[in-house]
Amino acid sequence: MLSATFAATTTAEEPAAKIVLIAGRPSHGPGDHEFNAGCKLMAERLANVPGVEPVLVAGGWPKDESVFDGAKALVFFMDGGAGHPAIQGDHLEKLQKLVDQGVGLAFMHYGVEVPKGEPGDTFLNWIGGYYETGYSTNPHWKAEIQSLPDHPITRGVKPFAVVDEWYYNIRFRPDMEGVTPILVATPDDKTRDTSHTSPAGPYKHIQEAKGRPEVLAWVVERPDGGRGYGFTGGHAHANWGDPNFRKLNLNALLWTAGLDVPEGGVASEVSPEELKANLDPK
Hints:
Blueprint: E1 2-5, E2 17-23, H1 35-46, E3 52-58, E4 71-77, H2 91-100, E5 104-108, H3 118-127, E6 129-130, E7 141-145, E8 160-164, E9 171-172, E10 179-185, H4 189-193, H5 204-207, E11 214-221, E12 227-231, H6 243-256, H7 272-276
Parallel strand pairs: 2-3, 2-4, 4-5, 5-12
Antiparallel strand pairs: 1-3, 6-9, 7-8, 10-11, 11-12
């Protein structure tokens, strides 16, 4: 496990807000599931926001858990499922203690998937939803975000369309209680009928919902005062080059930490060279 703290830009006497980004171990082929490069890209840009101190943890769950001390939000961009680092050993209990203190939690892409039962129920409490194997689905498709809700996370974000492994049919709280959809798109019939999912599709219940808009990113505000964010994209590292894809997530991490999002959203630039930096050796 490696960690790095990025120098915060401060303009006030108050200590900078600490946002810890936990990047999973190398996964999939080159250019996919580039957790380390994606987290570092976000951390470097958050460091330009006054009053924010991003801390990057590479290689999964930190060996030195004191890195969580004083954090306003934790961001998990990593492989999930039964091997999800957040559910191993006593990690759920440790995270719950942080949640009880109002710490925000964000889970991205594969990181939103956990087994049903206690892990899934816990995620329902923390972030309002999770990817449930056999119920949710994970094809690669072009999600066309045609409109955005009025929410701090969407400040400065314009409609966009990118191809990614967008998960949908997420298992949400009953009646979407307390869940605010942020990204919504409608998969075409070909996407619903595809066999290119894991486990292989098509799924009857997915096909029967043809024409239904699907929630791809969402937020909750918890009774403890903390916030939760779920984002199903992020499979393809190249998508961080899309300014709206990037701004949405940078805004979301500020919001999850309980911070104000700038009126025009978090400004950032990413060059082709920067996009290729820090990729895992695969």
